[in-house]
Amino acid sequence: MKHITIDVLVIGGGPAGLAAALEAKKQGVQEVMIMERDVELGGILQQCIHDGFGLHRFGKRLSGCEYAERFIQQVKAHHIHVKLKTTVIDILKDKTVFAMNAEEGMLKLQCGTIILAMGCRERTRSQVFIWGTRPSGVLTAGTVQRYINIEGYLPGKKAVILGSGDIGLIMARRMTLEGISVEGVYEIMKSPGGLKRNISQCLIDYDIPMHLSTTVVHIHGNNKLEGVTVAAVDDKRQPIEGTRRYIPCDLLVLAVGLIPENELSAKMGIEIDPKTKGPVVDESFMTSVEGVFAAGNVVTVYDLVDDVSITGEIAGRGAAKYLQGKLNQDTHYQMIHSTNLINLVVPQRFRKNNLENHLTVYMRVREEMKKVYIHGTMNDRVCLHKKLNIVSPPEMVVSNIKKEDISDKGDITMAIERG
Amino acid sequence: MKNKILKAIQSHEELAHYTIHIELSKEGIVTLRGEVDQWQHVVDIGHIAAKVKGIKNVVNDITVKGITIPKKDRSEEIRKVKASGHVRTCDVVIIGAGITGCAIARALSKYQLDIIVVDKNSDIAEGATKANNGNIHPGLIAKPGTLKAKLNIKGNAMYTKWAEELHFACNRTGSLGVVYHQSEWYLLKLLQFMKITRLGYLFKPLRQAMKVPGLKWLSGQEVQKLEPHIEGKPCGALLMTTMAIVEPYDVCLALAENAVMNGVSYMLDTEVIDVLTEHGQVKGVMTDKEVIRSKYVINCAGVYADHIAEMAGDRFYTIHPRRGAIAIFDKSRKGYFNRPLVSFSRTRGKKQHSKGGGACMTPEGNLLWGPTAKEIPDKEDKSVERTDMDYIHALGNHVTTNVKPSEIITFFAGVRAADYKEDFIISMSEKVDGFIHVAGIQSPGLASAPAIAEMVEDMIKKDQGCLHKNVHYNPIRKPRGKFRHMSHQEQDALIQKNPLYGHVICRCELITEGEIVDAIHGLIPATTLDAVKRRTRSGMGRCQGGFCGPKVLQILARELHKEPIEITLKGSNSYVLQKDNRR
């Protein structure tokens, strides 16, 4: 078994991992390594041939591949070690990592710090309880995207899409362009799950109907998908009798949400936030295990790759500071709470001493609201007060709280107040 | 007797108004005809007739208004196969590559017999075998006095040797029948008293139950000690130490592979369209591809056993399909319970002819809730409904309310092959020599399989007078190393030997390319995505093949020298891809 010692090991070569590795290196860490299961860097971005990536960061509409390429070039230029086709199978609390590939066999790595950047996976039909049979032709949107964009195959002729998250919307357009007829997009919630720009560019531009408060209730066909039954749902998301409609189709595309991929994290005993399904992180995106950081969609699912890259950089900087002994770990954590209109908040806690200029807080709201105030309080004192024209669940709210507005003691409570 | 049956039917308010025609053969076979309003009534009437004393079995031809179950016209196919002139010969044809078919094939491979197993599906274990909870029941619940009860107890004991020889996972965990009410506890204690004093043997209905070995009575405290996560405060439990858990498709594969090692041939994707007989003697079968002439035909066709029996001209039972749905949970709950648990206190459904389920687990550590039991008209109906899941959830809730439906990674259904006597039918045909019925094999068919195979083996031995031993017979199927169960050192050594083991394909279950390639080139080759899944577990984890599906499909295409568009999920027309859009 080959033994390797490394300062920063980044697990996952997607947007979060790339940004994290690069930042750690830029901060002066000697030996940085990215470990990637796939045959190339870039993660899921490599199958995202549509544009719209990097608007914030580069001010340009890049494709996923182009966005990844910009980071990959820099990773190469900065002499970061990259191990492709290598899968991490075990992480121990003392930061020993076991990984394997075909060329070298089992690798045992002793790491100064670890950055978890494994991304997320897609929810399946069983997790959203779609009844019926189990034929072929029921695929997640990401899998369909892979088949079409990477492998070059079409998995059907007539498709129904369940879920109006961004991947579902983008696949509606993509499939239409490839000659698959898309019958419609069905969304169980009252409002769409994806970004507004995707609804306009992927559905409206192609005359693909979206059915809100409607879901797929039954899958038909024992071997090959023959059709689905859809139905409108009531306030409790239960199908309304009399609204059932059978749609013949040979492809059901599921875009029903993403779940952070934290099997390795949970196995090594990292505390997981039940709301985000990702590790509880602090201002430097350090997890509950000292010296182990997390970045990107493994922490919580972001809407924009730009945010994923930013969290990668925060974690990369944190890892570098940790190695250099500059990360304060003496003081107690101060917590960030949220009220019920906010679904989740990242990071969940912080140490004020480690903040540079401000604390960036990511929040996802429960429902669409117009003309609201985002409100942060600390010991009955306001530390953030910002007006927002609109907030909605598909778009994460990002707020910076100035360091000088943060007290030395006490927790922060984030709230949304209707204007 | 006819009147007795009529009277029994009419005594039910719901059924009284139907006109049912009853025929009775001198062998005690009842044939029912008529039309009713709902499927459940067809089943109810069948059961009522079967219960009448002296009735051997029931052929139920009652139809339901508005439901036509189409019967395939095979005459054109039969003509074609006849015209093709393709004929092969062997000694024994086994119809059905499920657990019983494969067990019988292996048992008979001890002798100098040329054996062919045919199955219409693209893989073995595609029927009820793949879709049950893998419980090797102790034999207490099967109705005393039935063939089921006898073979269950016997088969259960035989599993130890099977597992040793065939190297499949078989964990003898024992199971707990938990009671929460004092009154039920007294009943169980009474059973204990009768067992200890051997008093139970005096009561005919109890005799079989008294033969179940390894029963222990535990106090509530002892139960909580064994199962710390159990719900509430049980009064006590019956520990059935002989319960074992297996992966049913794994057992079936082990049997099939060992049978192949010993000379048995498998013809998958091959459907029997006729049974050939001459002068009361079976002569073989006609498949959709060719004629196979043989001395014996063994009918292990599961839900279709009655159709095959009809082809042979000896239809004396009807299989009424009973669907069972099961939910499977994420492995992260591994070890939550240590053994299958069922609450004896729950109120069972009034028509619970098969065992209702409870909470159990797979040898790999996934929790399983279920199965349900629902009578359905369509033998192919493997759908799962919301009501199934509600029932499954209630079953689980009896022993814990801490496992949430959100932890379910998938649910599925299987169809049990129940006849109206609700017992196994294992016998040489009385009308066609050499045709053997192995029908009505529902729960506890998996547990009984070794004993069923032995029974059929004895039947052929007796019929044949003398069978020559296959001198090359080897009961041992080599252990199959599972990458995920190895130490990192062992894993490293394996990768150094074959780099394909260094490439992880399924990350949820840690399955390597090496294992997938092995499965594709195994003794029973895995040729579909689902077959690879059952051999290796790739796609069985929490992402359900979202990540590994496309990769496994590529490997299948590469190894089978096929185009990716030719690869199916589970045979037949279950293609995953439509066309290559880049060429």
TrEMBL record, chain B:
Pfam families: BON (PF04972), DAO (PF01266), Fer2_BFD (PF04324). InterPro entries: BFD-like_2Fe2S-bd_dom, BFD-like_2Fe2S-bd_dom_sf, BON_dom, FAD-dep_OxRdtase, FAD/NAD-bd_sf, G3P_Oxidase/Oxidoreductase. Residues 1-66 form the BON domain. PANTHER family: GLYCEROL 3-PHOSPHATE OXIDASE, GLYCEROL-3-PHOSPHATE DEHYDROGENASE. This is FAD/NAD(P)-binding oxidoreductase.
